[in-house]
Design goal:
Blueprint (H helix, E strand, L loop, with lengths): L2 H5 L3 H26 L5 H28 L7 H27 L7 H23 L9 H26 L5 H35 L1
Length: about 210
């Protein structure tokens, strides 16, 4: 890398990487939704989700590598680190949710899982749109609507978790109750992580507008 590249903010590098990572998050959420709606074989879907999680880890590592060797960055280094970590966390919880379903031997994906998966997908679509907006300071005010919608979806996920757990305690299989509760909570945490991303995006908007 020459002195010019070292001194000039590598805008395109970071923004390209963030958009690639956000796209992988969306595809992973789509695979999860496809899995719980029985649109494809669960083992095949889980394998795809696992591969996407690995791809996300690689991109996140690439972001940190660029951060360590770039002298002047387009965003504050802490903002870059937080955004990369927050997006990667969503992938981790999508992967963890799918893995629990497989390992716990869940034979039927219920309406709660399907609804959680839909809320996750809708949330990450908003996040992908938000990530694209940080390329230009003139677009940063548009991030507010992204945050509002993700917050609304996260509130729906909170309500869904309460309903799903209440329904669980009406059953008579304590082992399955424990398994499903763990899965529901993992899915709901994925929506919490989506809200974490909007918090980072909001900080970026405030700082750079």
């Amino acid at each position: 890398m020459g002195i010019k590249e070292w001194l000039i903010p590598q805008d395109k590098v970071f923004f390209d990487l963030f958009e690639r990572l956000a796209r992988i998050v969306v595809i992973s959420a789509e695979e999860l939704e496809s899995m719980v709606n029985n649109q494809q074989d669960r083992d095949i879907a889980f394998k795809k989700i696992k591969e996407l999680e690995h791809q996300g880890d690689q991109i996140t590592h690439e972001i940190y590598e660029n951060l360590n060797r770039t002298f002047i960055t387009p965003l504050d280094p802490l903002e870059i680190s937080r955004l990369a970590s927050a997006l990667d966390d969503i992938l981790d919880y999508i992967d963890d949710s799918a893995e629990k379903m497989i390992n716990y031997g869940v034979l039927e994906f219920d309406n709660y899982m399907q609804d959680f998966a839909q809320l996750i997908r809708l949330s990450v679509i908003q996040l992908e749109n938000g990530v694209k907006l940080i390329r230009s300071t003139k677009d940063l005010p548009k991030l507010d609507s992204c945050g509002i919608e993700v917050n609304r979806l996260e509130n729906l996920a909170d309500d869904l978790l309460s309903k799903s757990i209440k329904h669980l305690f009406m059953g008579n299989d304590p082992v399955m109750m424990i398994k499903l509760k763990d899965i529901y909570e993992c899915l709901e945490t994925a929506t919490d992580k989506c809200e974490d991303v909007t918090n980072v995006l909001s900080d970026i908007s405030i700082r750079h507008s």
